[in-house]
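pinning this so it doesn't scroll away 📌
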Amino acid sequence: MKPIKFSREETKAIVDEIRDYFRNELDQDIGSIPAEMLMMFFADKMGAYFYNRGVYDAQALVRERMDNLTDDLFGLEQPTKHVR
């Protein structure tokens, strides 16, 4: 898997979320640099887990859509004397 990279705007948004979490939930102020380091730690060590979960969810959705498509295609069949 390629390393997860965020744009400057995404990084700022994530860092702000981390800082808000520390402030609101832990009553601690954390600087931008430590927050970005924490973000990079999670992206590096746990990003693959979140990525894989997204892949699994996408696979399930595609499988469901394919099942629906197959059902719809069978619904288009015309009656014949030929039995499959």
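📌 and the second one:
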Amino acid sequence: MGTAAWKLLGTGGAILAGVLATKVVNLVWAKTGHDEINPKNPDAPLAKALAYAAVTGLAVGAARTFTERKAAEYYRNSAGHLPKEIKDQPVS
């Protein structure tokens, strides 16, 4: 496994996870009785826009982190080592 495989697994997976997490948040937001909201619109209530942004940010961040960790684990199991981009960064 090389750099191209890691970029496909790590970056591609993270992007897909972010898109899916946003779609899930939108579905849950609608099912809980909240109106659709465009947080970028200055006419939207600020509290609702911030709540939506916080929930979306948490969901996307968690999904991307989980996906990137799983991709790195898969890479390590396949190649016998972590990708250079991850190995060179401090753990703590």
